[in-house]
Design a protein that fits this description.
The protein has 146 residues and is mainly alpha-helical. The longest helix has 28 residues, at 3-30. It is built from 5 helices and no strands. The protein has helices at 3-30, 35-54, 58-75, 83-105, 111-128. Helix 1 (3-30) runs antiparallel to helix 4 (83-105) and helix 4 runs antiparallel to helix 5. Helices cover 73% and strands 0% of the residues.
Length: 146
Amino acid sequence: MNIDQALPTFLAESRELLQDMEDALLRLEQQPDDTEAINAAFRAAHTIKGSAGLFGLEAIVAFTHALESVLDRLRANTLTVNEELIALLLACGDHLGQQLDQVGTGEVLDAELQEQGATLRKQLHACAGQPEPPAGGLLVAQSEAV
């Protein structure tokens, strides 16, 4: 299979997964103990991360890994759902959508999107109780993979 031919399928499926994740997060906002919603959001992020890795989209992999870590803490009940967390997770979904849009057009992640991602990753690492990775270590141009 030609990787260039598979990319549109990856993008379409990832957008569907992002919608599933958003729906799950909005359910969590109303029902913070909904374990199926937590699991659905985690599965969506996990699948996007894995698929992005197949395409060498390291910026998406790194960002989604940070998102997945927070969702994993929710699954383990070591983090509690609240309004601020849901807002952060929804913002992360929006950011992933923007990353996918740029991959779809063949553009390199622009500086503004990279900065937005760095800010969100910092917040995710704080929520997950993880040390922040070295600056610049996760800002990988996606043009290398496309």
